[in-house]
Structures
1.
Amino acid sequence: MNTIALEASSLGRRYGGTWALRDCSLSLPTARVIALVGPNGAGKTTLLHLATGLLQPTSGTIRVLGEQPGANPEILARVGFVAQDMPLYRSFTVAEMLRFGEELNPAWDRQLAVSRLESLSIPLSQKVGTLSGGQRGQVSLAVALAKRPDLLLLDEPLAALDPLARRDFLAALMESVADHGVSVVLSSHLVSDLERVCDHLVVLRSGRVAVDGDIAGLVRTHRLVSGPRHTGPLGGVGEVIDRTDTDRQTVALVRTVGHVLDPAWTVREVDLEEIVLGYLGAREGSNAQADPTLRAVRPAPSEVGS
Amino acid sequence: MIWLTWRQHRAQALAILIGLGAIGVFSLVTGPRIAAAFRELHACLVVPGQDCGLLHESFDRRFSGLQFVIPLYMVVPLLMGVFLGAPLIAREVEQGTHRLAWTQTVTRGRWALTKIGLVGAFTVAAAALFAWIVTIWSAPLVAASGQRFGFGVFDLRGIVPIAYAVFAVALGTAIGASIRKTLPAMAVTLAAFAAVRVVVELLLRPRYLPSQTISYSFLQDSPRAGLGDWVITSRVFDPTGRFVSPDGGIHINPTDLAHACPGIGGGLPGKDEVGRCLSQLGVRIVDTYQPGSRFWLFQGIESAIFVALAVGLVVLSMWLIRRRIS
């Protein structure tokens, strides 16, 4: 049994002269719900297309479930994909969309698809083109799930949905994760929706991986510290992720190593959204290497506990 | 995949079959009358020495109105390319459904080959039916005119319509796979198909084999009349050079004529007198032609050209699908 869902090594993809994804190294575990977050143009879609085999890498390698994506029917069968905007054949009825899945997938689970759509009261005889956005999303998800993949990749599945449909979609997704143990990678530029459902976070920024880790661990090791304006390096923390110095105050998102002991600082816990925004807001170049004042600071013995 | 291809393209297939049905009905209604009239003409033509000029003229007059079908029939292969070929890949990419299809348990190579193969097979069958109907229906008209190589005759009969249709669909598919937008792909397919057809028809077809030459005296019928030859050029040659225009036609000035043939009466000489005079002067007609017996050879050569182009375009489409579309 392979425990790596998706593994990338120095993965890059260039369009013309622009790198959509560059030097991306990742190792994502199975049996997780992984959030792939970043602003538009960060390389999320490129990464997912590389993982499905729709795109070929310009440099580096990518493996899904230990195999080259899209190379043969066996690996195609094990990876489900819902592309951005959830393309479906508009002139087909819902029943014909299921027939499509059945014709193109040997391991098709018709019962699963039909019962899902029935429980959502989506009539099988209705034309796909006349469904609401939320219903189309549910049909896309049903088709992807009834293929019975081991890994399900979803590209911005929530973007086109209203809040209610978003909630229903995530509920349906979570239900099948619980029932079938499928691993999920879900891309989004919205963080708030993902906090409840995801347990692993990858943040992409400008085609590079800004952070990759277990969400509980990230929340545990990140803190927002604030205090009087302080222009020098921040001591006593593992790494400064993002920092704002105003005239009177310094606020910083930091990765901690143990407790922040300096009494001058107010320390507070952060949520997933603050972590993501911190990594997205950080200056270009992996965390401050370009800016000496923001260099990651290892705690010097004299500063700890002063 | 077979079901999917059928489900996606059944509307176009049905439209094409309805069109063929209309052509079939039209042929059934008009065909028997043409055939009956031709039997009458033929009965006259087989008697040696009989003058069938009037009968021939009335036959031609009666059915010349049917020429309106030539441009309509000429675009049938083009329509198949525009409506069956161009959207084949372009519409999928335009609507993003290629990503849906390529992430099921079917490799994109098999997906593309199945689609192109099935649509191609349908194209061959539909075009063959079309060519068969038109060939049978037009047989008396062509026999009466003796023109087997003419524009709208060679192109609509035999096996070339099948090759045109296969080429048109392959062209549409390849253009659709490179432009990836349905409407522009249809427009470009239309223009490209027309351009290739014109180039082949005007520049290549007369040169498939070296043409032959025959020379005969002015005022005579060609000794090859009635053999269904394709006369490519017919020019007049005159040893004196006096009556021949630079374009190979003939230019007659009555004064010159009277000078050359003093026996000719004054005023405007009759047609026969002019002919006799020119024959005496050694004026000859020189035809370059492709013999009518080469009809099937030329059909085969032209079909091979278009089928070879179609194969190249399918290879190009497969390459675009595998390497250039994501």
2.
Amino acid sequence: MEEELLDVKIDSRFVYNYSTGTIPGYFFRMLRDEARIFGRRCPACNKVYIPPRPVCGPCFRPTSEWVEVGPAGTLVAYTVVYFSFLDPMTGKKRPVPYGYGMVRLDGADSRLQHFISESDHAKLKVGMRVTAVFAEKRTGNFSDLVHFRPVED
Amino acid sequence: MANRAAIIATGQTRHVSRRRDVNITELVNEAVRECLADAEMVPADIDAVVVGNMEHFEGVYNPNLWSVDGLGAIGKHMMMVATGGTTGASVAHAGFYHAASGAFDTVLCVSFEKQSDGDTTAGLIFQADPLFERFNMAGAIGTFALAASEYMDKYGITEEQAAMVSVKNRGNACRNPYAHLRKEITVDDVLDSRVLAWPIKLLDMCPTSDGACAMIVASEDRAKKRSPNRPAWFKAMATRHDQPFNSDLPMLMGMRSLTHAAKEAYGQAGITDPIKELDVAELYEPCSFAELSWYEALGFCGPGGGGKLMAGGSTGMEGALPVNPSGGVISTNCIGATAMIRVAEAALQVMGKAGERQVPDVKTALATGFGGSWWSEITVLSSE
């Protein structure tokens, strides 16, 4: 007879509180209070980083200046996600299909990956213009930026 | 490089999607016992143990502490190494540094993942930056879908060219008794398989596997005196990390960390024309498109030439440089062990012990690791 094999199921819930620190803190406050997106400039190489960060890694110099970027930008990579998976942010399956892309915001040197409102991949293309859509009620985290939507240029 | 050191033995579990018959301690023990048998050694012969996995997949922490019985590490020097997807390669490199430093003569390296205990995509999302990236990440599949769209747009790479990678690697896996997915497939099978995240389809992507890998790294003297196998000598090693966010890279594919690591490793090994001078390569290709791009980063062809190199057959078993005779990551992916399996398979090729998947007369073998936000590790092994 085949041996019975058992699993032990552990359903653990645990709340984390991540400090934003000073630099991302300003970014999230401006996103929440004014629906504006700010990047951070390195004084050595002049690159404007989004997400903003305290130190430019390649130059190892503290970033020194806030630069408003977007809200419009250019789509540089995209997909439509069809497979459903467990989203650890909610504990539920993430609804599919949805658009997902990498956007170069106007005025930024690095890119930003986020949801795209269009979920038909035939309607998306590299180089198309998109703009940020902000949540009506904003709470000071990344989901205040709901997604990017395609715009006529 | 420091003193010489070599891989003298390897061991692997059978890799499948769900090993319900073993827990983590039993899983690592299976690979360790096979490796010790291959070395004709007992635990008393081992001076130090290095172990690694990606803890967030299983939601277990410091498994090095409580799987110690299975590792055979009681009363020995032991350390855990974790570098994300590159973990297995980092463990192998740590094995080299332990032995080449002169501090230890015989080092047991072990890496594993029991992915079925948790959820792979959720685990990968949990690895990302909590402030900016977790909200929208779609695991490895989403990231590679973005990368593939950009790669196709820039170089005209096609879904058919990528599918050929899956066909080649799954075909190779049929000759590897350890491989997880062992079934011949066709280009049409790949193109017709379910779309996970356009343009990535089910058969373009690696599976999730449970499995473990072990190897013994020995100092030069110990390798010469005690190795029952032809030693696979470390010839070159290079590691490169990149910036923290996927979105920091000027382009995802065309991986600059792999390009830079290859340049350094080839310099150490005196390699100027890799496709001619390497006899076999085991690449960490999480998806079909990635293998094409890694060809370019590793200098097997020029930028954008990966699709043509694949279609021309140069990387097949009969080609100028067979890539992934083991079946690669597309056929087996127990993540924490995956990058070490590349090194172990390269070592088996140098030892002449790769069985039906053996490439004839291997003197120099390359292995790569992929992980983190596009980090790379390269290992070059040699018969001399």
